[in-house]
Amino acid sequence: xxxLPVVPVAPGVSVALFNMLGDTEVTEAAGRELARRLPAEIDxxxxxxxxxxxxxxxxxxxxxxxxxxxxxxxxxxxxxxIAREVVSITTGKPQLLVLDGFDVEKIRGRKVxxxxxxxxxxxxxxxxxxxxxxxxxxxxxxxxVFTEGQERPEVTALGHLPLFGPEAEAS
Length: 171
Ligand SMILES: Nc1ncnc2[nH]cnc12
Hints:
Layout: E1 6-10, E2 13-16, H1 24-37, E3 44-48, H2 53-63, E4 67-70, E5 82-87, E6 94-99, E7 111-119, H3 123-134, E8 138-148, E9 155-161, E10 163-164
Parallel strand pairs: 3-4, 3-7, 7-8, 8-9
Antiparallel strand pairs: 1-2, 2-10, 5-6
Helix pairs in contact: 1-2
The chain binds adenine (ADE).
Domain Phosphoribosyltransferase: 27-155
Protein name: Adenine phosphoribosyltransferase
Keywords: Glycosyltransferase, Transferase
């Protein structure tokens, strides 16, 4: 059991903050369950840094499928990186998603599962999808611990979180 604190992330919007980082028990339990639900046809997992990386690690270990991390900053050692801007609900600021060109061949022509902790506005998901499709991968599944706000039937999730309105901000 975990209590999720309700925290404001934007004017008039609060979220029940789910942070798996450092929570071995939740990461392991969620990863095992999502690995069980992963379609057999999936070749490779793709996850954005940073909160979902340990989750992708567990799903990878359980399923035997490799995972690729999409970074939030471009690194000097990256070869021909592919980048997209995204506005995240939790930061409210534009941020980058960057695929190292070194990883392109692991995605091209493959069936990809996107792994994330929470799928909320769908901004990160859309940008990840664009990057994966640009390099010739097919997004065949999206797995997350939670969906949030609107219903997302295309996402395999273990639960759903509400978004909170202005009345939650004062508490
Ligand atoms: N409730 C939430 N907890 C953690 N990260 C999030 N990103 C979007 N919604 C979130």
